[in-house]
Design goal:
Organism: candidate division WOR-3 bacterium
CATH superfamily of the largest domain: Dehydroquinate synthase-like - alpha domain
Protein name: Iron-containing alcohol dehydrogenase
CATH topology of the largest domain: Dehydroquinate synthase-like, alpha domain
Pfam families: Fe-ADH_2
GO molecular function, one term: metal ion binding
Helix content: 40-55%
Cofactor: Zn(2+)
Strand order of the largest sheet: 1-8-5-4-2-3
Radius of gyration: 20 Å
Oligomer: single chain
CATH architecture of the largest domain: Up-down Bundle
Structural class: alpha/beta
Strand content: 5-15%
């Protein structure tokens, strides 16, 4: 038998620290990388926050750059930017912004088979480093395979000024990994899926590290480092597994169902957080009590009303949830709960 090895799809480099957005070309150079034609994506807010400055820094370093302000994470926006990419023949796409800007950048880089650097300005979900992009097509959000970042650069001076709601959303998204991994184990035990212990360990440890570090001051730089590392590891776990399984289970099915049935009610992390309190209870998850207490301590969204969804709507979302991921086996498919059972559980948990 020949030599056996495993190829992992992970970023080439990762930089987390103060003022890192002021030294982007230098960071790239330290990794012996050089790009000559760079497409910088940002939005109306992040272009002034960091996008234009980063573009100017690349130009000063000798690169030819163009900026595109992303309006939304839609199929139409991706296609518009692909046309610009073709005209410029860029060798690097850089996204400076939140989830929508990053998802569009990942998608363009994936479809054009080029390099991609993620520079997040809010820590609201694990799109920072995942090989998944959420793109709206024909009015429906779709999770699509996309480009794993070549590099991730996090500037804590920017992140700590992010709205507190987005930080809380990121916390909930990382913690939801505990629900996702439990579902993955269940699917494996039932013969419904292959389980990757390595990827699951990365995903679960990112959540447990955050669970152990959580304090009342969630804007503390040390805590933000743990949160950002958790979000990044969550995305990397998906790259290692070659599937979203390590970070997406029944709780994400419920969130996708809410998006489909009742769009634009809350942030992604907020929805999966509330859903996780429900699914972890169903799973008899050993971390359920710690997670419930954490949500109370940090005042994270923990009731359906906190995500602008009524209990009736949440029940309908749970029933609809399996349709969002056909073929995926989770605690929802396993228990096949009836509406009355879901209502009783919501009442019992005061969700």
């Amino acid at each position: 038998m020949g030599f056996i090895k495993r190829s992992l799809d992970i970023p080439v480099f990762l930089e987390i620290g103060e003022k890192t957005s002021y030294e982007v070309p230098a960071i790239v150079s330290r990794w012996n990388l050089k790009f000559w034609k760079i497409l910088v994506l940002d939005d109306d807010i992040t272009r002034e926050l960091a996008g234009l400055r980063i573009l100017r820094d690349f130009v000063s370093d000798g690169a030819s750059c163009q900026e595109v302000v992303v309006s939304d994470s839609t199929h139409e926006e991706v296609e518009k930017i692909r046309k610009i990419f073709h005209e410029g023949l860029f060798d690097l796409v850089v996204s400076v912004g939140g989830g929508k800007v990053i998802d569009v950048g990942k998608m363009v880089a994936y479809m054009e088979n080029t390099n991609f650097i993620s520079i997040p300005t809010v820590p609201s979900n694990d799109s920072i480093s995942s090989p998944i992009a959420v793109i709206t097509h024909d009015g429906h959000k779709r999770s699509l395979g996309a480009k794993m970042p070549t590099g991730v650069i996090v500037d804590l001076t920017i992140i700590k000024d992010a709205p507190i709601r987005y930080i809380k959303s990121g916390i909930s998204d990382v913690i939801s990994n505990l629900s996702a991994v439990s579902d993955w184990i269940l699917a494996h035990e039932m013969g419904k899926d292959r389980y990757d212990t390595f990827a699951a360990m990365i995903s679960e440890s990112s959540a447990l590290n955050l669970l152990g570090a959580a304090d009342n001051d969630i804007k503390d730089p040390e805590f933000l480092q743990v949160l950002l590392k958790g979000l990044i590891l969550s995305g990397i776990a998906m790259g290692v597994a070659g599937t979203s399984r390590p970070s997406s289970g029944s709780e994400h099915e419920i969130s996708h169902a809410i998006d489909a049935l009742y769009p634009n009610r809350a942030l992604h992390g907020e929805q999966v957080g509330v859903a996780s309190l429900f699914t972890m209870y169903l799973q008899k998850n050993p971390h359920y009590e710690k997670v419930r207490k954490l949500f109370e301590k940090l005042d994270l969204p923990r009731k359906t009303e906190h995500i602008n969804v009524s209990r009736k709507e949440f029940v309908e979302s749970v029933i609809y949830a399996p349709r969002t991921r056909p073929g995926r086996y989770t605690i929802l498919e396993h228990l096949d709960l009836k509406p009355q059972e879901i209502e009783r559980i919501l009442e019992k948990l005061d969700l």
